[in-house]
Write a structure and sequence with these properties.
mainly alpha
């Protein structure tokens, strides 16, 4: 087209750019637009809007605004589609505040938002969890000349479902039906998925019947939601029934559904059944993906069949699937579980050499087992390596190390690390406190342990039953019986129970002939 003489009209170029854009080859649109510019072919509002749309789809909304400047410079008048394109680009990049600002500016300048503009903005608001703002925009839309359609309602219903606001979603669904707007498959799937996650199977069946009566047939997304939820609830037989129904209706299960079934069996340690599902999937022409293999590998690791897990990892590699961080982390954890720490470390080095970057889960697994196996120096070296990388260790990582230090008798080092958490922008969680209190009690530093215990509520980390039992045992073991009794009373008042270890200690103390009888009577009351 560029070499034709005379050259085609700008209308022809606009048609070509539209066709390319529809195939999502946005880089080609940019390249062709550049060539048109170099040959002096003047753009019009349509070609410039297509160019802007391509920039936005490539996550370069900043260049999209440059195109808007060019539109204005060339004397073209932007339209609603122009602004909607930029609003969509801002929403995709998560810049919802900027999108709202542009929407307000658009309205102030006299441009009328259409149903696509409203739908785009509402979808963006829902995706960042601001469903209340989306509903306010819906009400504002209804007061104007533009009425919501099924896409608008579905966006908000889906957002409400994802935010676990099912009642509000169902109310909006009813409102939609009252207004004569028919739901589509996406609307039904959003609600069914939310109902499945709450195990509301009776309501799921009701909604499925409504769908079918409305001539809307369940699709693979509908069935996937049901199968996944049933498997997670351990209702594996029911999940298989759903898959049979699905096949009977002519809907072929995909790799996601088969993977959900495999995961359901793995959760019940039914590895033979999980492998049968895998084999059926292959026989039906559905190619297993990395996720499918990871599920089976994880299942074998959990039952400590590392021979099978390692063979599967080799098989997936031979089939052109590259093990990812999840694969390696799962195998490393499995090796640690069966006491093969040196093999786990070797696999970790192989992982790094292959270009897979370990995440905090991987590091957490290795740190935990290095500490458990009394390899504190190696654990500390690994912590330093994490701190020296671009990764920021979280409170779980530091808690593992503090636990390792306490168990290795390095209480001073644990205390220092605990004290420095705030300088790292971290706050101790309940487990960090419990570990530190236990370490202090073990050393007999009851005043310091009690001080830490008292600070917990002040730091928005209330003690749990484990905390109370730890510090109570600390006082009992160090003959601070009256303080222990106070803690026991407080613990019971908060609704917590005396655990097995504390009960055992109380029984031992009651059999101590040297203990005062009045104290024994008080302690005996806590065993009733």
């Amino acid at each position: 087209m560029l070499r034709m003489n005379p050259p085609p009209s700008i209308v022809d170029f606009a048609k070509l750019l539209t066709s390319i854009s529809k195939t999502k080859h946005y880089s080609t649109v940019l390249s062709l637009s550049l060539q048109m510019d170099s040959l002096g072919i003047p753009p019009n509002i349509y070609t410039l809007t297509i160019l802007m749309n391509s920039f936005c789809h490539l996550d370069r909304v900043d260049f999209g605004f440059s195109v808007l400047a060019k539109i204005l410079k060339l004397g073209h008048q932007p339209n609603t589609a122009t602004f909607t394109t930029l609003i969509r680009g801002l929403c995709v990049e998560g810049k919802i505040g900027d999108a709202l600002h542009l929407f307000d500016k658009m309205v102030r300048k006299g441009f009328q938002p259409n149903v696509i503009t409203y739908g785009t903005l509402m979808d963006g608001l829902c995706k960042v969890g601001n469903t209340s703002a989306a509903i306010r925009l819906l009400r504002s839309m209804e007061q104007g000349n533009c009425q919501p359609n099924v896409v608008v309602y579905t966006s908000i219903i889906d957002g409400l479902c994802k935010d676990k606001q099912l009642i509000e979603a169902l109310n909006l669904f009813s409102e939609m039906l009252t207004k004569g707007i028919s739901p589509n498959i996406v609307t039904y799937n959003s609600i069914i998925q939310a109902l499945c996650s709450l195990c509301e199977w009776k309501h799921v069946r009701t909604l499925l019947n409504e769908m079918v009566n409305s001539k809307i047939m369940p699709d693979v997304v509908t069935f996937t939601a049901m199968v996944d939820a049933l498997c997670k609830e351990g209702m594996i037989a029911e999940a298989h029934d759903v898959v049979d129904t699905m096949i009977g209706r002519g809907v072929e299960p995909d790799v996601v559904i088969y993977s959900a079934l495999m995961d359901g069996h793995c959760l019940r340690s039914e590895m033979d059944e999980a492998v049968k599902v895998f084999d059926v999937m292959v026989r039906r022409g559905c190619v297993p993906n990395l996720y499918s293999y990871n599920i089976l590998i994880n299942g074998y690791c959990k039952i400590r069949r590392m021979d099978k897990a390692m063979l599967l990892s080799e098989e997936m590699y031979q089939k052109g699937l590259i093990p990812d961080t999840v694969t390696y982390s799962t195998l490393i954890h499995g090796l640690c579980l069966v006491g093969r720490l040196s093999d786990a470390i070797a696999l970790f080095h192989k992982m790094v050499a292959s270009g897979q970057i370990p995440d905090l889960v991987t590091y957490g697994i290795l740190l935990e087992y290095l500490c458990k196996n009394c390899h504190l120096p190696e654990a500390m070296a690994m912590l330093k390596a994490i701190e020296g990388s671009k990764m920021h260790p979280n409170i779980q990582i530091y808690t593992i190390v503090i636990d390792g230090m306490c168990k290795a008798g390095e209480l001073e080092a644990a205390r220092d690390l605990f004290s420095n958490l705030s300088s790292k922008g971290l706050h101790p969680n309940i487990w960090t406190y419990n570990i530190m209190i236990h370490g202090l009690c073990k050393r007999g530093l009851l005043d310091e342990a009690n001080k830490l215990f008292m600070e917990m509520d002040e730091n928005d980390c209330s003690p749990n039953d484990c905390t109370y039992n730890i510090i109570t045992r600390g006082f009992l073991q160090n003959k601070e019986t009256l303080r222990a009794v106070q803690l026991l009373k407080e613990m019971l008042a908060r609704g917590f129970s005396v655990d097995v270890s504390t009960t055992k200690l109380l029984v031992e103390m009651l059999s101590d002939d040297g203990l005062d009888q009045s104290v024994k009577q008080i302690l005996h009351n806590f065993l009733k």
